[in-house]
Design goal:
The protein has 329 residues and is of the alpha/beta class. The strands form two sheets. Strands 9-8-7-4-3-2-1-12-10-11 form a ten-stranded parallel β-sheet. The longest helix has 16 residues.
């Protein structure tokens, strides 16, 4: 079993250090930090975390090839591996189209962009001088990494839709599918398996991280409010596959999006998050988490990844998740 913690890039650097050290002590194998637009820079956060810890792996979850060129992503991956003693994992995705619109970017050709980016980044990290002549990336043979990368950094894909999941099964070292709700594991698995049929023999088995949202606290009402606020913020951007799994539609989220993004009335937006939407994650304590995840582990899940909001008190949540880790170990 492997265990990872996922955080948004909206905390202070001091908070990240405290949470990362607690996570390492609790037995987590990895810690991932998002790189959402207009918040703190994930690569800087990860370097700070690595300097304050000894063994836990750090991951950027996720970077995208639209706001950061794949050549620069390769530079970043190699440098962070050098700085962390090969503890860096690279999370890639096409990015959320709704948020990319904030900076006037259209996520064109997402499948081609991801396939070509993975190929190009690995080629650069291997020190190759391979021209790119794809539909998304174009460069000449003279484009190559001008220093020796410590290794070919593991690439995890934050896939959501069927085609991207299949691409992940084919090409990636790991998968970071958001499982909303956790039972969506059984929905994404067939797509990953279908892609794995085309998987190159030199690639190791895919590390499928069961990425769920949890909000843990001994105060259940406080935990519920935190998860509801996160759902109110992100709900409108969820894929149709996930919405169908929850039994809701984008129309259900429109009034919440209006209250959250336009009116900026967080209290009203949170009040409209109903129990169907709340099933997107897990609210409560250690028993609640174990109960929801037991069927997934019984079915073969071997990497449990716990993500924000985590709870009203991050350190309390990490402590409680340490008990979950002990249970599944």
């Amino acid at each position: 079993m492997r265990f990872s913690l996922r955080l948004n890039n909206d905390l202070t650097l001091r908070d990240y250090v405290a949470v990362a050290q607690a996570a390492e002590a609790a037995g987590f194998d990895q810690i991932w930090v998002s790189n959402d637009l207009f918040l703190r820079s994930a690569p800087v956060i990860l370097q700070t975390i690595a300097q304050a810890t000894q063994r836990i792996e750090v991951g950027a979850g996720i970077l995208n090839p639209y706001t950061l060129h794949p050549a620069e992503i390769a530079m970043l991956a190699a440098t962070l591996d050098e700085a962390t003693g090969n503890r860096f994992n690279l999370g890639l995705a096409a990015g959320a189209g709704e948020f990319l619109k904030w900076v006037g970017i259209a996520a064109a050709q997402p499948l081609a962009a991801m396939r070509e980016s993975i190929v190009a980044i690995r080629s650069l990290l291997r020190g190759e001088r391979t021209p790119m002549t794809g539909s998304f990336l174009h460069w000449e043979q003279e484009a190559y990494l001008r220093f020796d990368a410590p290794r070919v950094t593991p690439i995890y894909i934050g896939a959501m839709g069927p085609k991207m999941l299949a691409l992940t099964g084919e090409l990636a070292d790991g998968a970071l599918p958001l499982l909303f709700p956790p039972e969506h594991y059984f929905g994404v698995l067939p797509y990953l398996q279908a892609g794995a049929v085309q998987r190159a023999p030199e690639l190791a088995a895919l590390d499928l991280a069961v990425c769920i949202w949890v909000s843990l606290s001994e105060d259940r009402a406080a935990a519920r409010h935190v998860l509801a606020a996160k759902i109110a913020y992100y709900g409108h951007a969820l894929s149709p596959l996930i919405l169908a799994r929850l039994g809701v539609t984008q129309a259900d989220f429109r009034p919440i999006e209006q209250a959250m993004m336009v009116e900026r009335d967080i209290t009203r937006a949170v009040s409209m998050v109903d129990e169907r939407m709340l099933r997107i994650g897990i609210v409560g304590g250690v028993h609640d988490v174990i109960e929801r995840l037991e069927p997934l582990v019984a079915a073969g899940a071997r990497h449990l990844s716990f993500g924000p909001p985590l709870g009203p008190d991050q350190l309390e949540a990490v402590r409680l998740l340490g008990q979950v880790i002990q249970h599944f170990q």
